[in-house]
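REQUEST FORM: STRUCTURE PREDICTION
Request ID: SP-0412
Submitted by: Lab K.M.
Chain count: 1
Length (residues): 289
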Amino acid sequence: MDIINFLQSRRGAATTRTLLTAGFTRRMLANAVMDGRATRLHRGVYTSKEADLDVVAAFRADGLLTCVTAARFYRLWTLGDPGSLHMSCSTGLARRGVVHHGACLHTAHPYLPVAGVADVLIHALRCLPELEALVMVQSAVSQALLSTSFLRSKLPGNRNGRVRGTLDLVLPRADSLLEVLAHTHFTRAGLRVRMHVDVPGVGEVDCVVNECLIVELDGGTHLEGKQVKKDQYRNNAGMRGGFLSLHYYYVDVVHHPERMVAEVLAVLLNREVGRFAPARYAPGWVPPS
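STATUS: Completed
RESULT:
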């Protein structure tokens, strides 16, 4: 493999030790620098022209990317742009534009300057707003990278009580960040929620609220023509089975959860007062003359 291709397989940066272990000689490294194909970042690190900027920053600082900055390296869900660089630096020196985290206690990424997934999540739980940390942990659990019981064992004592509470919100199964967020918002509103329910005639639905309302959480694929038609037929089947149905999208669940919850509560209230009942049971009904 060409040295540049190798660097690109490592996000555009690698240590001298990694390159030598891969079979490249020091002369080959020197030639790559001389002809401009690679750059010597500092002693012991080489980069390609299209190297990942966060990886380069970590190598330059002799640190490990962690918290929300490291999420993409483990394909963890996040809520928006990380913003500042989150890093654990061995020097402990403050750096402008960097959110500093404590030492990493678990095995790091095998070849990138990225903290291990356990440290990434522990740092996120202590650093980020609750729901932002929650979706990262849920993603890791859904990928079977680790368990909530493992994380809980690493967060003892009263000072970690709040973050252990976040772990209680993690679901046994969540196919998207929308599911764990919606479940959290609905249960905190006092609603009874079951996830991934097999409804006869409909199939598996995302949520059933208070045993009468199907809530589907739709991603981008649900905007495609064929999927829209399929969803409408599923709605019809649900109505035949006695269920009401609502659909919500990313913008609803992530950016307007209060509005979503209020709408669900309004529909449930309408059902409770009989507005979806046969006319003769509705308030103020007058029999035809």
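NOTES: The mean pLDDT is 90.
Reviewed by: T.R.
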